[in-house]
Records
---
Amino acid sequence: MKKALACLLAALLVCCCLSGCNGKPDDPSASASSPVDSASSAEPGGPEDPSSGTGTPGVPGEPDSPSDTPQTPNSPDTSSAPNPSVPDNSSNPPSPSSPEASSPSVPAPAFAFSAVTYPADAVKTLADRGISQTDFLRRASGGSYTGNAGYSGSGIILSPYFTVSISGRAVPAYGTLTFIGSSQSGAIHSYSMINVNRDTFSLSVELTASGFTPAKAVVLPASLGVTPRVQGGKTSATITTCGTYTFLFNDGDQEHAYTLFVRRQTDEDAEIRQYQQQYGASKVKVFEPGVHYVDNLSIPSDDYTIYLKAGALLIANHKYDIDSDADNSSHRESGSIFGNRHPFISCQSKKNIRVIGQGTIDLSQLDWHERNGIVFMYTRQVTISGITLVNCPEWSLLQYRCTNVNIDQVAVFGYKTNSDGFAIANSQTVRVTNCFARSGDDLFEVKTLGGDAQAICKDVIFDNCIAWNGKARCFGITGEVNKDISDITFRNSAILYRDATWDNDRIGGLVIIPEQGGGNIRNVTFENIEIYRDTGRAINVTVYSPAVTNCTIEGVVFRNITCSSGMLSQLKSGSGSGNRIAVSFQNVTVNGTRVTTANSSSFLTKDANSSLTIS
């Protein structure tokens, strides 16, 4: 009898383990928060001057004009500001257990994925909102205060162009406004976000087009190795790794792009509990799925977390009508750490700070220059991860005088002039990884604003990032170089399109372009970068302003670069006295031809104070 009972118990245990693999409540993956349909299935049989904030009215896409004197962000009491130091991770808690982290005796969970969905009461079709597609696109056309104005409601819509199915299950496709430089017009960039519960999988993606006919397609970056198939108005592809996959159609169509973000699933509730237990519930501000109308947020203390759950949509409240430079100057908020009004999220002189989750911040209602997006100053141990920012009316993310910064899996969409993507200023030990930006100014940039002798920028790495730009520059050192910049790396990244050509001494794809200041630039590497299409200068190293003198730019390496470029690249030391540029090309291929010493003049122009070595 005892032996029979033991056998019965063993059989019941096996049944329980098997039921846990099929997405039942005891499946670890089932506890991950998502406001969407979470599907469990077998794998198919067979991815400028920011402080002035005025820009140049009437010139579409032109970055802020450099001022006559270096601009310095509003400075705190530096006696309490943390000093740059070796990264200190002692306060960071360990990550919550992965859904796959189980003992050898417990089978891995069945593969499952979930799609991030926005609140249906805020994100609708254009027809449901009573807006014509023509009027919606017109919002992104033109410059100055009219062409960059805010509009009521969310800037996110249900995509008019795509119906998406992934492994036989419907996934919502959204869209938001972006900008095409060549036509000076708006475009709707469509996208979806899904989370997978393990690292090995196979997803069958099918896009059904509406309003246009796809004849051929490409998935970028090409290094992802995905080849789509187009047949009967449907485009399909198989994706087997996490990443950011952008589908482009008909060889040059920038109006109908679709990006699929495939990310690893996170147990949001477990992660939140862990931070609450370690730091206290009062130091973890959680935004649940749904719409949240917010003026602005200020980080109040050390060890603080803002957590945006998947499906949380934070819509910035419009408070000031800013229709002119005079309006911009007159509407002020006391205590702002940067600019005339508080950034949407601001932090100054704190440590161990997080803004994380898979929620979205939508600033579409704000007028031009009404607020910056996320600005951190004099802060160390910073993590910004997973969030999406839409239509910032000023810089999207700025780190000034910060150390030990990690920005990962952040997406930026926008069209407004000066809506820079990821700006790293006067900061040290910064990592920007797995990020995407299609916005209205420089995208992945390093610079040095004003500051004391210690306000240098050093040890910054951008890795596995994707840029698409219709107004300015994609990757590089741009604008203000008031202090020295060194040890900067841009690697394993891609430019999909860049078609701004309004001043080809000032903009480009991969750039080092000081416009003001007296700092030197040393040891900058661009490596393993693909450029699908740049209608201007794919590579541009130029001292732009004649006021910049005695500027040394050296130790610059372009390695393993493949690009399609509409113009010659450029090395130009400028008209200021004493400037010097030293650049190395290592395996650089332009328009299908590798650049050599013998043919370099066919691909690049340089002046007498610029040297180039090629290998």
---
Amino acid sequence: MTTPARTSEELEEVTILFSGDSGDGMQLTGSQLTTTSANLGNDVSTLPDYPSEIRAPAGSVAGVSAFQLHFSQQEIHTPGDSPDVLVAMNPAGLKTSLPRLLPNGVLIIDRDAFTQRNLAKAGYADNPLDDPELGSRYQLHPVPATTLTLNALEDLDLKRTVKIRCKNFFTLGLVYWLYDRPLEQSQAWIDRKFSRMPLVAEANRRALLAGYHYGETTEAFAVQWTVPGADKEAGTWRIINGNEAAALGFVTAARLADKPLVYSSYPITPATDVLNHLARWKHMDVRTIQTEDEIAAMGSAIGAAYGGAFSVTGTSGPGVCLKSEAIGLAVMLELPLVILNVQRGGPSTGLPTKTEQAELLQARFGRHGESPLPILAAASPGDCFATVIEAFRVAVRHCTPVFVLSEGYLANGSEPWRIPALQDMEPIVVEHPVDPDGFQPYARDAATLARPWVLPGTPGMEHCIGGLEKHPPSGAVSYAPEDHEAMCQLRADKVARVADFIPELKVDGPPDATLLVLTWGGTCGAALTAVRRARKQGHSVAHAQLRYLNPLPRNLEALLARHEKVLIPELNAGQLALLVRGRYLVDAISFPKLRGQPFTVREIETRIKELLS
């Protein structure tokens, strides 16, 4: 058989969306393509999209699992707006994801899955493959992926159901051929993953090769595309998602302070993987505690901090609600610890596998009484590493609990991350006073207003702590009105003093641009890309990203005053906009989104142009 004549085209970037049943291996397929593309030197950004139901009916729309990957020869900050390629493994995957595909995009479908039963489950009255409009709007390729997979595995002594599960590797092989990706990385992964199941390993290897050879030999694809590697800073790189970056950041922070790490958590989506990752680091003096509930997790975190460990508790929004009373206790005790909130769609159970940024006000005000806390937010999956380390610096320096806000989009999304050298990082200096002369448990550092972090059992420095109000600086229980007011003010002033130690906010773009786009959290990538695109088109616009949300950077008020308009896009109903308006009396323009999905570049770019027209 002769190989069909084809043209080869070089592309700057490609966005591919895999969509199918939760049992079709879409997350694995996307992860393999991500790793292979990163190893080729491409910059990559991903958006896994899981169904919320644990076991939705097979073939149903509710059970669709999707994985979007954007890879490029240039630096990128988002997983792409609309895919150039959609791989739909069944009718439900097609119905759910087709509206996102670009016009004239490549549409690859496993036509074997389009049975009457599957069509009915997806809500199709007729087979969409029979509609000529589908082929006119997209580059349609109905591939008999299941049949070709079974043919390739015909002589293997495996059950038919096991063979069918290999079809995701068939589609992966086809995409590898379409975009000139090598097979070796995935072949090596298969050998490692199924080393104890040689027949399953052989089946997946064959399916991968069958898909690749199908692309190579069929006349259906007239073009093969290639995306060259991007220029990257020298160093050792790896793919990392936000939850793993946070886990590594916690371990690194403890190493920088020569302290044990204690992580207390009750499993909750999408924060559970932080606990799973940290459980593997026992050899680095990491102790993980899976508690019976959120209250116990917060209580054990307080106990670990009191005992002198670097202490973290992790959860998502509903868990923060349950922790809130104990968080108030941590504020009263003034102990250094970190509370990680990986935000998800709410309220209540809400959208447990979808992203949102709706817990800023909860972190800021969601406790009884006057109980301020520093709040930091990560901007990208890799930035979760640096953000949690900075949170520990703040916690130790000011002897206070600190909130870190991540979100489902960052927790599950991946990007290339340059592994830093521990010896190049600034140590975290921890002081435990041991001189009892003149000791007062609630004496204050002149610069930070931190109280001393004294280890229990230090001779001559025994003292009581608890949730009742205190006399400054002795810490003795006091109900005196003047003491309560003084302690409330001291706790607030201590958090406000954090602003003296954090960097000033920087702006990407002209310092006097007409419009400033102000963001926090995972909205950073889409906003930065949109602003730079708009600026190339001649628009007067700049971007600033807030890592520190309480206290806000000390130069923010002056920075806002330099811009005629301020736009604040966020995945909530306008929470940062509310804080900015109330604090600085700036008529900030709120741009809310509450759809369980991150902003696209197009959405923000369109709003920028509307405001500057």
---
Amino acid sequence: MEKGSLLQFIKEPPHEYSLMPFWFLNDELDEEKIQEYLNDFIKHGVYGLVPHPRMGLPRTIGFMSERWLYFLKIIIEFAHAKNMKIILYDEGMYPSGSCAGKVVESNPHFSARALIRREKGVSPLKDDEELVLLTDKYEYVHTRSMGTIRGVHFGMDDGEAEAPPAGDILNPDAVKRFFELVHDKYYAEFKDYFGNTVIGIFTDEPNPLGRKPIKNALPWTWGMLDFISKNVGYDFKPYIPLLWGEESNEAQKVKKDFNRAIQKRLEYAFYLPYSKWCEEHGVALTGHPKGPMDIHTLKYFHIPGQDIVWRWVEPFNKNSIEGPESTGPKCSASAKLHYNRKRNMNECFGAYGWNFTYEEMEWLTGWLLVRGVDLLIPHAFYYSIEGPRKDERPPDVGPHNVWWNNYRNYADKCRRLCWFVGEGIPVADVAILADVEYLPWMASRVLFENQIDFFYLDIETLLNTATVSPDGIQVSAMKYSLLIIDDMDKLPLELTQKLEPIIQTERVITYQKSLPEVKQHANNSQKLLDFIRNKIQPDVLLYPSTANIRYYHAIIQGIHGYLFFNEGKKEVQAKVSVREKGDFLWLDPITAEVKPVNPPNHLKLNSGEMILLFIFPQNNLQTT
């Protein structure tokens, strides 16, 4: 790619890389007002959205009612005429799988189920309960979880009397009913737009128990005991008591086996048929699972995603680089790469409160993009902020906020950077081993703070689709020279055998906890860094060193590009050395203009600021 072509793409990237905010439809809806909003969104650089039924809708506009579909049709037809993109939302309101309670209304046995422990003989079994195990002191009973979802009408929120009952998403028959009530109806109404204007369906943190279930309840469904026993390879029934209370090594193993079996059941009953339905109807399954580290289920998503909400990640806070929530963007970005997806997304900024600042939004945007996210779904634009609607998981980060008049600059910058991240082939030498629902973050912190990029590689993908040779691991388009095993107690035998070629060439290292199968171990960050530096040539070096700069390296049509982001509180100035040799071209993502830098390897970034660097073959910075 020549300089002129690159600058044109950066200046005006395709609209498909636009922000796609949740649009909270939360009041009496009006066709003219809807069109006014949509025109205003386009004016401010927003070319896609997720129409989201939300608390405050009048009861005359129930989820999946004729009136709901009528207004949704207005939105979709407008979007089609204006070349906007739409992702449909699958629930009224969340978590997904209930159709606002209609799944259970059609069959009470489709309510979310649970396994509970109660004292023996205290309560007789109800008609929809079954005794799973009886001991001297306790009975273990399969019953309704009593979990609910948040509804879309006042009086239907958490803990309120009319909160809709959650559906049993571990039951294939209940899930089939969910599809009939929502997805099949969407397709019947909007099939002409599927695959062009309607590009996907968003599922939101599916939870087998629902919200606010019985205390100490565990996920369950009809026929679950046989499913678990078959999955774990032994009769699980005698071990059920170990799921409560005890913390012995045996109990920990049983709980881990149980959680894996529940995960498998959720995949079998919910995610797999969901993914197939979307493929058969020409749209992408997107959204996000319940947990920020649930990488395993993301293989069913055509646009894998995660979310950052409730200030679980904040600028300059330790929670941005340690803890489960810190792993979310790398989780979805890794899934995109290893499952051969085109995009990955993040639902961002929800419930950060009206004290959420523009500077915080900019910082979190950089935090997501530099970790590999390429589709941003801001939570949220509000149709109305009248009365209590204003305080329902605020803020409005769009038309009802003070920064709306200047939003176009932000939206254009996001589209440029999402294009760079989404179109580029990433470059990273290191993989960190991930378990089904656990992504280690201590090794990742060491790598982030020393400008060593990485992705998470889950055990199942490594076993089933990766090729391991003495010089590294190939999975999809990625070739990793090193594998870090962080904070794991044991390796499955089949994994040890698979990794044998790179264990022998000492390209695998454990961190925190050593393993007898792996020769190399680092018990502190410096030893880990020394090991990496001795094995691979650094991709990025900064002089003087700093812990606050993050980067993302990608190749676009043969041109190497680097996105740099300053996560720290203070300005950073440093000399940059990159592995790729050539002439430096710096670009300002806000203006899409070339940014003169003298000397050309000088990096200067204010707190929360981003910049793009492209490396062209020496003396080949063509202008046309």
---
Amino acid sequence: MKLTKKTKIIGSVSICAVVVAVALTLGLYFGLREKPETLPYIEPEQPLILNETDVDLVSDGKSAYKIVVPAGQTTKMLGFAQSELQLFFGEATGIALDAVTDDVLQDGDTKYISLGNTEQLAAHGWSGDYAELGRSGYRIKRDGESVFIFGASDYGTAFGVYEFLQHQFDYEYYYKDTYSLNTNVRNRKLLDFDLTTVPSIDQTYLAMGEVIEDETHAHRLRTYTQEDVFLGIGASRWHTAFAILGEMTEEQRALWVSSTGTQPCFSRDREGISTHMAENIMDGLRRDMTVTAVNIGQADNPNWCECDACTAELNKYGTNSATYIKTINLVADKVQAMLDEEQPGRKITITFFAYLATAEPPVKEKEGGGYEPIDEEVRLRPNVSVLNAQIAMNAYLHYPLTDAHNSGPKKAIEKWAALGTEQYMWIYNNTFYGNYFTPAESFNGTQETLQFLAETGTRWVMQQGQQNNTVSPDWSRLKAYLDAKLAWNVYADQQTLIQNFIKAYFGPAAEAMQTYFDDYRSWYAYIAEKLDYTEQRTMQPDYFPRNVLNSWLGSIDEAYAAIAPYKTTDPDRYDALYDRILLESLSPRYLQMAIFRTDFSEADQTAMEETFRKDCSNLGVMMLSEKKYIEGNALFS
């Protein structure tokens, strides 16, 4: 039977057959990660073709295969890997795969898919090596009729399941209810797997409302939630220093808090504050056995302690980060010593912010170029990493980090790399502290920025969007997909990824929406060249003239027309596609109302605003800006 590739919108929406060109390579394959000496460079993503074996994975609508998991080692993520394999294998073939533990598998059973660290994996002498694979990488190996999917962590194993499905059934995930998958599969040979896949950047966190609120969505994008990585302390995982300090005596407060009360003091009593913090961190690590990092982040303000001790450190090193680092190093030593005693083998990374008052590292220029620590006291311990949050990048999202507009943040990142260990990076893919409906064209810069970060040793990257907006306008769902894919392979074919997403996500409206997207990017390239565009200066007619907004809204109207037949033939699909188009209409409509209000009568202005508010509410777009809700506030000020 001929296989039918489908893009499926699940839930109440029916299946729609759509031919989707899906790139087969999901990541950078180990051994093929050689990077260019200069940037930018785009390595075309070539499909990886695996040969068929003579082994039947599916024959005449039946399968003799089962899933094998380790007995007594079930974790939430390994259970997720098993359920995802069962779900999508079943949807592709109609077959419900049984799962058994490795201790009950019979010696003669060879038709199985082993997940994680099973006895059968160990019998082959294989294991996931963290130094090779990181937390997210994995291997897929075939031995005879058996298949083994395993990583150095259960996250790697789960991500490996998706690649197995991709090769066997052309699975590709785009959005919560949109993915491609061959269905009605009655016959399929097992492929000859011998793969090792390692992402360009080990871990990605998409700080975008829809992804934050749905861990399944995050994991299917092969990204992490903040809970997967960082220990929660108090109500935060980021600006945690005061929460880690917790209750203090008056004597401790006098030593450990700045005179203004706005920041900790990391200088006056370094031994005391580091011991106190380490003990409180350990209390959290005893409760949460899955996280791999703890951030000791200063309060979210530009202040720093100005006591004599902190001032002396500032004068010596030229930056506030030196005293911060010295204390963090001590905390890391003490936490690891307690872990070695209580939880042997567990490793935790202690991170700290390069942010505002601590954005600059304590380094000096080396003879012949490059940087080095000012002295060994400020070299980071092996279990310490900087969480580099160069907030100035948010003003120039259109430009990559390697562009002159971002020379300050780029130079700071290069300097921080000189202190040793891999960096954790906090970057931006959308407007988050300005008006949420102001478009932020980050597509131009994302790939080259991620290439630069991979080159400079980034282990974890956060892409911050509108994190507190349940649903975000301005191509946010495409940004989530693209950011996730490019972090896995920073040399992937970005244009193909974009086109595939738009085809799958918008269905028959794809041509019109592709036109809108291409015009959107072309216009931003123009204003970047002619007007030195930044995100903070865009609510002006020079940036968004009438003809540009009218052209974009014309493409939106064409998209609505393209889905019109579904209104009677398939109302559920019509509603789903309509809402997707409607979401992308919000930014140009808002700009039209904000910049050219006098083009409309007062009655039309009122009607347009009421419709806009209603559309936002129905779509789940709740925020006007980082700290202002749409409901109860004026749209324009």
